[in-house]
């Protein structure tokens, strides 16, 4: 999904020399994308509340290098109080997990300089992902992911509520653009994406009684999904990716 994130950041106006804050930086993928854009005269700070993932992000960034000064800080977004302001505040797949996303947005925006950029990339699972002609493995896998999201109390349509989230946080309507992952060919990334997502969610899937690694035959899932799609000449459609941005 990196190309879309990068497109949203560039369209939002991210450029060389900016100081950027990445909310919910996870393994640092978006932090690194932003570092490429802002270059050595800029800087990127990633914050995350999960110390394990943060440590992995630090190691990863040290190992592969980066084009701008990058700092990772352990913090819950609502407890984060930096000493200086940022030129841009960005995030991917983070607002949808917040019980009150507009509160998080307005909290973070207090650290944004006047005229600074807010840019978020979220997704919508609500429109059921599908395959044409239908394939059962991909369809069932994406239905399972959607069900876990719904049962965890997360709005599966969140990506389509970004205009409302910005409005509730007191901002004008952002520019919104959406993209859709489509796969189905041999070697498509979509099988790995769906399978890795299920693997990440396995502890929750098992707790909710929706299946086990054994039921799902997780180790061969991607390969079986690919075989089914290729043989049926199917187009597999993933969740809607939504970018929203504005300058304050
Ligand atoms: C789905 S991951 C996305 C990671 C990264 N942005 C990416 O797209 O690769 C969401 C991350 O946000 C972090 N997160 C969620 N809510 C947070 C909060 N309120 N404060 C700090 N971190 C948060 C989680 O710990 C997790 O690492």
Automatic annotation (TrEMBL):
CDD domains: AdoMet_MTases. This is Methyltransferase domain-containing protein. Pfam families: Methyltransf_31. It comes from Acidisarcina polymorpha. Residues 15-124 form the Methyltransferase domain. InterPro entries: Methyltranfer_dom, SAM-dependent_MTases_sf.
């Amino acid at each position: 999904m990196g190309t879309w994130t990068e497109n949203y950041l560039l369209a939002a106006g991210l450029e060389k020399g900016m100081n950027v804050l990445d909310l919910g930086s996870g393994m640092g993928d978006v932090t690194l994308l932003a570092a490429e854009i802002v270059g050595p005269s800029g800087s990127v700070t990633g914050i995350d509340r999960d110390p394990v993932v943060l440590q992995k992000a630090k190691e990863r960034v040290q190992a592969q290098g980066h084009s701008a000064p990058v700092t990772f800080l352990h913090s819950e977004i609502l407890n984060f109080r930096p000493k200086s302001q940022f030129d841009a505040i960005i995030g991917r797949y983070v607002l949808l997990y917040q019980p009150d996303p507009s509160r998080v947005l307005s909290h973070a925006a207090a650290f944004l300089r006047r005229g600074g950029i807010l840019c978020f990339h979220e997704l919508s699972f609500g429109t059921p992902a599908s395959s044409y002609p239908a394939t059962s493995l991909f369809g069932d896998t994406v239905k399972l992911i959607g069900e876990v999201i719904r049962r965890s109390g997360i709005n599966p349509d969140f990506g389509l509520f970004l205009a409302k989230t910005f409005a509730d946080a007191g901002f004008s309507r952002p520019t919104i653009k959406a993209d859709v992952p489509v796969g189905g060919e041999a070697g498509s990334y979509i099988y790995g994406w769906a399978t890795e997502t299920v693997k990440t969610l396995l502890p929750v899937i098992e707790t909710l009684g929706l299946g086990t690694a054994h039921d799902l035959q997780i180790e061969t899932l991607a390969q079986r999904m690919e075989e089914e799609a290729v043989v049926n000449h199917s187009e597999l459609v993933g969740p809607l990716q939504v970018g929203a941005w504005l300058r304050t």
